[in-house]
Amino acid sequence: MDESALLAVVPGRAGLQVDLVETPGGTVELKPLADLRIRVHSGEPVQGLCGTQRFVYRRGDVDIVAAGQADIWHEDGPGRSVVLRFAPALLERTAQEAGLPTGRAALAPRHQLQDAHLAHIAWALDAERQAGFPNGRLYAESLGTALAVHLLGRYTLAKKALPSLSAAQLRRVVDYIENRLDEDLSLPVLAGVAHSSVSHFKTLFKRSLGVPVHAYVLQRRVERASALLRQGRLPASEVALAAGFAHQSHMARTMRRVLGVAPSALRAA
């Protein structure tokens, strides 16, 4: 696969190039490059084989080839594609201009995307290439910027961090639960401790600890009951109340479900 054929530098966008690549069929190999590549199939449908997986490339199918990525596959017939090739610095610069976090500019490799907007940018840049860039630098720069913004918005590896409880909020809530584990805790009260609405608190708590509020409280009650039973100082009925269970039978059922053992087994241990 000759990636230098019919290559043109897009004016005004350092590192952005557009290339029409034609392959005769057979083995197609992508060499690893320092550049990122967007490959948009522009010819007739072509069938092929990658490993053991059959595929059909149709006009508009998009591949994202990450920097340093190599690939190899077999095509049953001739193929044609528009390849946009650019340095990672183009994405990094656009991310900085947009105020995005550091590291947001890394692209994930993708195959056979259906992305009409990305294909439209590729067609427009290729049309400009064929015509000798008659619309000038401003038009080409606008297309290059649109390409970078679209890629940053949809195909970067880094994901926006979802909000969770702050360290101070989480500490207040956990301490409140620990100090009142034997009480009838409620979501509105716990949300109030975190200075949050109930619906928001439920979501933030799960993101912070990985489990829903009720599951966390239940787990802590089981752990406290287990510790008290092993100490052997209180009868099982008092252990149940001290750990926040409604009664001894409730504690026994919960411990069997969570730990797979009965309270009497822990007492004996």
Overview of this structure, please?
InterPro entries: AraC_XylS_family_regulators (IPR050204), Homeodomain-like_sf (IPR009057), HTH_AraC (IPR018060). This is AraC family transcriptional regulator. Keywords: DNA-binding, Transcription, Transcription regulation. Pfam families: HTH_18. The protein has 269 residues and is of the alpha+beta class. It folds into 2 domains: 148 residues, Regulatory protein AraC (Jelly Rolls, Sandwich), CATH 2.60.120; 102 residues, Homeodomain-like (Arc Repressor Mutant, subunit A), CATH 1.10.10.60. 45% of the residues lie in helices and 20% in strands. Strands 1-2-9-4-7-10 form a 6-stranded antiparallel β-sheet. A 4-stranded antiparallel β-sheet has the order 3-8-5-6, with no helix packed on it. The radius of gyration is 30 Å and the shape is elongated. The N and C termini lie far apart (70 Å). The N terminus is likely disordered.
What is the name of the CATH architecture of the largest domain? Sandwich
Determine the N-to-C terminus distance.
70 Å
The helix content, as a percent range, equals 40-55%
Order of helices and strands: EEEEEEEEEHEHHHHHHHHH
How big is the Rg? 30 Å
Q: Tally the beta strands.
A: 10
Q: How much beta, percentage-wise?
A: 15-25%
Number of domains: 2
Total DSSP helices: 10
CATH class identity of the largest domain: Mainly Beta
CATH topology (level 3) name of the largest domain: Jelly Rolls
Side-by-side strand order of the widest sheet = 1-2-9-4-7-10
**Would you tell me the overall average pLDDT?**
84
Shape: elongated
Q: Profile the largest sheet.
A: 6 strands, antiparallel
Q: What is the SS-derived class?
A: alpha+beta
Instruction: Report the CATH superfamily of the largest domain.
Output: Regulatory protein AraC
